[in-house]
Specification:
Arc Repressor Mutant, subunit A, 2 domains, 11 helices, disordered N terminus
Length: 301
């Protein structure tokens, strides 16, 4: 990435803003479990459930020293058989569940998990590109894959599931997860920081609907941008742009906020509503109108 002055200026400014926000969240002198605080805003990616009716899900901020790598932790509890589905996002996860713990790479389709009986599941959601600091393989090697912990991390992960799930207290469990992550000595580099800033830019500005906008803003060529995303995110920037736009659409639909689908399609960069409807249905499994009706909202145009 060297030699791209625009990208370095943008990277420096975004990192100062990010670091200022991260540093303002915590106070020194807290015990380990107290540094893992509840994240109160509702998750955006869960399908088929109104946010007001979502039960058994909690999220937590990571401790300050891991905030550059972990976006948040999530915990799900259930007491009856059910199927959970989420919209894919450009990040990787470590998921801990009794007998089914794994590393989950980026999925190009919605993530579906059948939950039997009753149970509890913990997850660490990594910032885009940040998982690369834990492993020697490029991120594309994990795309569309779910792998056992020991396949990815080797013998050091053998006891992680049992130790993390031993306590029913979420924050005590997450202290174990954080200790595991710290043992890798995670450290960032310019490429990880740059790709994280680019994805954050996409997520924060609905007006970014094309890859060439990113090339211009960050002063990076097409091939360099593709290599950066393949190595650290696991998938190309075009998919990331589209997935985050569709996440926006699914999130608004789940909250019952859409009044006109054609207007939303245009806002998200689609040239025509039919193309948007096809992509939405492929991702969610229902057309936008059918999906909102399934949640009990009145039909939108």
């Amino acid at each position: 990435m060297g030699g791209h002055l625009t990208s370095k200026r943008n990277l420096s400014g975004l990192l100062r803003l990010r670091d200022g926000m991260l540093c303002s969240r915590t106070m020194p002198g807290l015990k380990k479990h107290d540094k893992i605080r509840v994240k109160t805003d509702p998750p955006r990616s869960i399908l088929h459930v109104r946010p007001s009716e979502l039960e058994g899900v909690a999220r937590y901020w990571p401790s300050p020293d891991l905030e550059s790598f972990v976006e948040d932790y999530w915990v799900a509890r259930w007491d009856r058989p059910e199927t959970a589905e989420t919209v894919p996002q450009p990040c990787m996860h470590i998921v801990l569940q009794a007998g089914a713990s794994e590393v989950i790479g980026i999925s190009r389709t919605r993530f579906t998990r059948v939950l039997a009986g009753s149970g509890r599941m913990l997850g660490a959601k990594f910032r885009p590109g940040a998982f690369r600091t834990l492993v020697d393989l490029p991120a594309w090697r994990y795309t569309d894959k779910s792998l056992p912990l020991t396949t990815v991390f080797g013998p050091r992960a053998v006891t992680l599931e049992a130790r993390a799930l031993a306590s029913d207290d979420d924050r005590e469990s997450l202290v174990v997860v954080e200790s595991f992550l710290r043992d890798f000595g995670p450290s960032s580099n310019e490429s990880i920081m740059l790709v994280g800033c680019i994805v954050a830019r996409i997520a924060g500005d609905r007006g970014i609907t094309r890859v060439d906008q990113l090339m211009h803003e960050f002063g990076i060529g097409s091939r360099s941008l593709q290599r950066l995303f393949r190595e650290y995110v696991g998938i190309g920037p075009k998919w990331v742009v589209q997935s985050l736009r569709l996440l926006e659409a699914a999130d608004r639909a789940t909250r019952g906020e859409v009044t006109d689908w054609s207007d939303l399609a245009l806002e998200l960069g689609y040239a025509d509503q039919a193309h948007f409807i096809r992509d939405f249905k492929k991702l969610v499994g229902r057309s936008p109108v059918d999906y909102t009706r399934s949640l009990g909202y009145s039909s939108s145009r």
